[in-house]
Amino acid sequence: MGEEVDFLMQLFEEFFNGFLRFGVRVSVIGCKSNLPMTLQKCIALTEETTKGYKGLHLVIALNYGGYYDILQSTKNIVNKVMNGLLHVEDINKTLFEQELESKCVSIPNPDLLIRTGGEQRVSNFLLWQLAYTEFYFTNTLFPDFGEKDLKKAILNFQQRHRRFGGRTY
Question: What is the pTM of this model?
């Protein structure tokens, strides 16, 4: 790895170690096996130490991609079927979601995704979870996105008729 990447990984290690003091539950979603071993150990320690914390829950998407999430979920299920732990008939939406990286998050799928900076794509982020999410696009760059912009996005969201695959709510 290059000097810059090594520096970033070291920053992440210091970042994770800081959460052990603040009572924040930390979960990391993404392919951790490609990260440096010292960072993998730091993440594992942080997740294990903070898993019982009941306050804030910080979920960090590190080396995460929606394609990866769906593929690893599929592979886990196939592996369980091949080993006789599951039957094909057992596979459903709930089972699939239990195998996703984001299973550590006990919150519902997003209702609204705000995409800043003029981009109009999801960029391989939470592909499964965004199935019924409403999208709001703004040219405002993230650092400049403030309370006024958030209110505008929420007002826009409130004007929509959500159908969730057919029905209007």
Answer: 0.73
Q: Which residue has the tokens 């960090």?
A: 60
CA distance 28 to 50: 12
What is the DSSP track for 91-127?
Answer: --HHHHHHTSGGGG--SPPPSEEEE-TT--S-TTSST
Interatomic CA distance for residues 88 and 76, integer angstroms:
13
Tokens representing residue 63 in the block: 């080396």
At 51, list the tokens: 């898993």
Tens of pLDDT, residue by residue over 88-99, are 999 999 999 999
Give the CA distances from residue 6 to residues 12, 38, 39, 153, 161, in Å, rounded to whole numbers and listed in that order: 10, 11, 10, 38, 47
CB 64 within 8 A of CB 124: no
The C-alpha atoms of residue 131 and residue 119 are separated, in whole angstroms, by 19
